[in-house]
Amino acid sequence: MVKKIPKPSLARLPKYYQVVTSYLNRKNEKYISSSYLSDCLNIDDSQIRRDLMYIEIGGIPRVGYDAKELRDVLADYLGYFNLNEAILVGVGNLGTALAEYKGFERYGLSIVGLFDSDPEKIGNLVGNLKVDNIENLEQVIKKFNIKIGIITTPARYAQQIAEKMIKANIKAIWNFAPVTLDIDEDIFIQDENLAENFSFISHYLKETEPEKE
Amino acid sequence: MVKKIPKPSLARLPKYYQVVTSYLNRKNEKYISSSYLSDCLNIDDSQIRRDLMYIEIGGIPRVGYDAKELRDVLADYLGYFNLNEAILVGVGNLGTALAEYKGFERYGLSIVGLFDSDPEKIGNLVGNLKVDNIENLEQVIKKFNIKIGIITTPARYAQQIAEKMIKANIKAIWNFAPVTLDIDEDIFIQDENLAENFSFISHYLKETEPEKE
C-alpha cells in the first residue's frame, strides 16, 4: 500500500510537472535526472526522489526518469487530465484576474460561471463569460453539477456564499477572501490568504535585518 | 538557543494571529486556550502548542495563553510591527487587486509604487498611487531603499523584471508570475503560483471520485 502523500510533497509535485514539461518542449532527451530537477528548483536531490516515490514512478540509477512517463504520471496523479469545472463568485479585480487567466486549463481547471451581486457588473463580459446574478448561483451549480466554487468576494460575504455553495452540493471551495470559513460539512477548503503568505517575507526581512525596527 | 522554525509551523502563525486578534476584539477575556485555537482552525491542539514554543511564549496549563501577549509576540515575530515598503510591477487585474487591497497594512506591507510598461496605464491612478514608467524602476527602488518587489507581470517578463529589481538591491521578491525565477543571488523569493495551488483541489477531487474520468 502506498502511504498518503504529505502536503509539502504534494505541493512540490506541480513544480516537477512544470520543469519536466518545459524540458520535454525544449530538449530531445528521453530521460530527466533528479539532479536536473534539483538544479532547476533548488530542492534537494534526495527530497525529490522521496517525493516521486509517492507517485510510484521508478527511476533508473545514474540515468533518471523517463521524462514523458514522469510528466504523464504527475499529470494523472494531480488530476490535470480531469477537466474540473468551477464557478467563481465576486467579480472584482481579483475575480477578473482569475477569470481571464489563461494558464488554468493546463491544470485541469475551467471556470464556467461568474457571479456577482452588483447590478453594474451583472451582464458584463469577463474573459468570455457573462457575469450572472448571484441569485442564480445554487440553480446553476446544481444544473451543471459543478464541484468547485471559487470565492473572491470581500471577507464579509464569504461565509454566506460558502454556505450557499455547499447547499447546492459543491465539493471543494477555493477561498481567496481573507477569512477562515466556518464549515462543518466534509468539504475540501483551500484557503489563499495572500496577506498571510506575505508573512514569510516580513519574517525573513526581520530575521536578516534585526537592527531595523 | 531556539531552533529554526519549520516552514509549515511558520505558515500557521498568521492564522493564530488572526484568531487571537478577532478574539480580543470580540471577547473580554484575558486568556485564550490552545483548544479554542484548535476549534477555530481545525488544527491539532498539540500541534498548536508545539508551534507556539518556537516563538517562546509560555502558556499556563489548563488556562491558556495571555491573549494580548500572544497577539503581540506573534506580530513581532512575524514582522508585522515593521512597516515593509514594496513596489509592484505589472498593473493588470491581479496587480490592481493587490494595489487596492486594504488588508496588507495590518501585516506590515505598504505598497508605495506601481510600475508598468503600457503607455495606456502609465499615469493612471490605482489605489491612490500613480502608475509609473517601468524605466524608472531601478531609480525609485534605490532612492527610497525599497526592500520588497512584487511581480504581477505576464510570465515572459518576470525574469527580466526580477533581475532589474535585484540590480537595484531589492532583498525579497513576491512573485505572482507563473514561472520559476532563475536567481543566483541571496534573495528571498516567495512564489505564488495560483494554478499550482489549484492542484490540491484537483488531486482531492480525483482521490475522492476515482470513477470520474
From TrEMBL, chains A, B:
What GO terms in the biological process aspect are recorded for it? Answer: negative regulation of DNA-templated transcription; response to redox state
* A Pfam family hit: CoA_binding
Q: Does the keyword Transmembrane apply?
A: no
Localized where? Cytoplasm
Kindly give the InterPro entries that the UniProt entry links to this protein.
Answer: CoA-bd, NAD(P)-bd_dom_sf, Rex_DNA-bd_C_dom, Tscrpt_rep_Rex, WH-like_DNA-bd_sf, WH_DNA-bd_sf
**MF term (GO), any:** DNA-binding transcription factor activity
Q: State the GO CC annotations.
A: cytoplasm
Question: What keywords appear on the UniProt entry?
Answer: Cytoplasm, DNA-binding, NAD, Repressor, Transcription, Transcription regulation
Residues reported in the UniProt entry to bind NAD(+): 90-95
Sequence ranges assigned to domain CoA-binding in this UniProt record: 80-180
Query: What does the function comment of this entry state?
Result: Modulates transcription in response to changes in cellular NADH/NAD(+) redox state.
| Homology family | Belongs to the transcriptional regulatory Rex family.
- Subunit arrangement? Homodimer.
Protein name, please?
Redox-sensing transcriptional repressor Rex
Q: What species was this sequence derived from?
A: Candidatus Mcinerneyibacterium aminivorans
Question: What is the name of the gene encoding this protein?
Answer: rex
